[in-house]
Amino acid sequence: MVRLWRSTVGKKAVMAVSGAGLLLYVIAHMLANLKIFFGARSLDGYGHWLRELAAPVFGYEGVVWIARAGLLACVLLHMTTAIQLARRARAARPIGYRHRRPVQGSYSARTMRWGGVLIALFVVYHVLDITAGVVNPNGVPGQDYRNVTASFGRWYVAVFYMLAVTALGFHIRHGMWSAFQSLGISTAKRRRALRAIALGVAVVITAGFLSVPIAVLTGVLT
Amino acid sequence: MRLTLRIWRQRGTSDAGELVTYPMDDVSPDMSFLEMLDVLNEELILRGEEPVAFDHDCREGICGMCGLMINGVAHGPERATTACQLHMRHFADGDTVTIEPWRARPFPVVRDLVVDRSAFDRIIESGGYISAPTGSAPDAHAVPVPKPDADTAFEAAACIGCGACVAACPNGSAMLFTAAKATHLGLLPQGQPERYSRAEAMVRTHDELGFGGCTNTGECTAVCPKGIPLDTIGRLNSDLLRGALRS
To answer: How distant is the Cα of B120 from the closest Cα of chain A, in angstroms?
Structure first.
């Protein structure tokens, strides 16, 4: 296991698995967000239900905290391996080319590192805004609908959010397929299908996330 | 054809080096890229200047010696073509052509455009072989090999070890080279006993030599003169992870 962790292939496998965990969460999160279109009661009720989930076993908010711990572990593993691999890559080419032209790498593949940084910064703000309510204009726990609409009522927050979820879409587009390749699941036969699936998932997730701030900005949600 | 060449000149490994501009007045479109450099070197020798050092050998695209970064693309603008098989007709009159050596820490510049690619030999030494008892050659059909496996193994075995994959990789990774050998041997019956230990040993050596990790951008396979597919890297990853889970 230690040897695997030391190898670049092992680190990519860790990135793939932790990324898969985060992707599953992001899909669930996006679908849950859509509850906002069914009204305040639907969204706030979902938040309440989530906190009471398996409460007799884990206590109130128990499942939520277990999920948060898992997500934090995934984020730490994903970022640690990403930074280590980026440092290795930089060390592997101490003298760069004077004239360099990318031939193949897609935009999403080239922006994985800085896109990841942008997403990480956004997540910090997002947690302070919606989860903790510290920087939220409403910031009342349990009033998820009002917190979200109050936050997106400021156009610059909505724009930052839309920028971040677009970056997330690009990240998923390369990252999801790349994870299959890193784990050795992608083969010549499956590659085309896996790339198409990754693109589809990225587009659906981005569109789902974009729908909420757009609805607030256009006055569909108030 | 008139061309303006900007060529990386570096006296030795410890020299800083710089791009030097050389105007070329009479380039034939039928010349190969290396023949064009030969003509430049003849002119430089006549002027009493030091000729440009560059690697070359077979000049028919099968040895893997020539390797030049031409206008920022390994082996130049033509796909699946080595620099020696690239002809000047693919350039336009008046073009400026920048020529640089492969750039990677494990590939130190020896002089001008020549780099030391011994790092590839270290990777091969660590597992790019099969341990077989020597003796007379076995009959060709003594060990049956399924045709699709033979084809895929042959495709990977076409690697000439030129280093273009490393040169083009944004991470300076030699994963395509390593994976080509692991795929070539790992698909054939003779390569099975050492399949997992080979993947582990070759990747370990690859990492120790200072090559970067793969980020699946596919730059390597786009410039590979032999068109080694990206799937080989997936196969190497699979062998390495499966080997680790088994032990």
So the answer is: 14
